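Lab notebook, bench 4. The sequencing result for the construct came back, and we need a structural model before the next group meeting so we can plan mutations. Quick request posted to the team channel:

Model the 3D structure of this chain.
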Amino acid sequence: MTRASAIVGTLLLSHMPTPLFQSQQRCAGLVARWSSVAGTRIPALRTVVVVGGGARRRLSLLRIGGVRSAEHVGKGSALGQARLVRGKTAVTCAAGGSFVAQPSSRRKAAKKDFPPDEKLANLRKEFEKAADNKGLDAYIIPSEDAHQSEFIADCYMRRAYISGFTGSAGTAVVTKEKAALWTDGRYFLQAENELGHEWTLMRAGTPGTPSTSEWLKETLPEGARVGIDPFLFSADAGDELRRTLAEKDQELVLVYEDNLVDKVWGDARPEPPSNSLRVHELRFAGVDVATKLANLRKELSSVGATAMVVTMLDEVAWLLNMRGNDVPHSPVAYAYVVVELETATLFVDDSKVSHEVSAHLNEAGVSIKPYSSLVSEIKRLAAEGAKLWLDSARVSVAIKNAFDDACAQYYEDLEIARSRKRGSKEQTTMDKEELDGPAALHRPSPVGIAKAIKNEAELEGMRQAHLRDAAALSEFWAWLECEIVDGKKKISEVEVADHLEKFRAKQSGFLDTSFETISGLSSTSFSV
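Done. Here's the predicted structure in token form:
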């Protein structure tokens, strides 16, 4: 799988100051600084500078054409019509002059009568029936799935469905009266285009924009009930949200029944992916599964843990040397792993497991259970007195609470049994049982750390992948130069992206790109 990004704006490099492109992080930071001064008169610079991207795996250099949602008030030249949209991720600057950026809200500014948003109306109806009919005042819809993944399968794109905003990052919050969406600077323009008239865009990271929890605290009255799907929030995120809401005596409600957006989505919601797993060959992995499990068990023993639940999809794939195809452009499958000192269990839909994968797992001593049975397994661990290693930054609220509740039940039962006992000898026995009882150990995942330390086979794989991708890019640049040399032929962004993927697909070992090519031309370069 190739990992290099396609930088389709390279032809602009000769016009750009070199320091701007020393790192992706610096580019993102520069955009943030420029965006923060939107709405003020600022001097225009002499160089056309456009920066897009900013995701961990993305970097695109995009050209802007045309004045867009900005009022040019300086003199400037034809080349130098300055553009800056308040809170946007694109900046062009001109030769002299200055300008004032104007806010953009296209649908609201149109002042037309739009029909009510049926999805929002139906979601608000679900508020009344939620949480055992106790009702909700607001509901938060994140971008993530139950594994806290950044990139997810279509059936879990709940935020995109309810809001209409299709960018990869964002959080939607719906109250009985309002609907707001938070996203970062990569997607301000896209969100303005895609959000309906009832939605308010909250430009995350810009001065004066509150966080979701701060906004809820300010918007809702005391005693308000804010609902979340506990499988879609990490334990840390859930705790932080609960603390913030509590400052105004607002309550965080964990809605364990069907996700409310799923109820609105109904039969139109895509089916969960059921793509087959495949074995990741040892010549690429470098270390077999049995060795990885043995190393993990040493880590568990060193801190007194007896079990660990692995929830991140990339960690599951790495630990068991297997790959999937459940998420576009990501070689992962929806699954969990529970590792104990003597056993290991993969929780996955068995329809994804071929005979080859089954034999591969069996050889390493890994059993298979249904994906949906993880919570009951967590409760079993607590009932048996497990010391469970949990990464609270990654494991969901639902999993953490399932273990905590089962631990509480364990000690409640223990107290009842103790009250029935008499005599010092029996009391000493009960004290020992209590000492050996279940407990959660909150620590960063050792799997993520081990995965980050590449062995020689993995390093060589990375080298070979980059060499093959460099060859594909060389072919691509040669093709592109021939196509545009006389300036007469017009090439679309789609054609450019298709040709780049075609050249990559010719390379040996190619499976997929790590994300869709980001290509832009003229006005489409505004959106990332």
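The CA atoms of residues 292 and 420 lie 46 Å apart.
Will bring this to the meeting.
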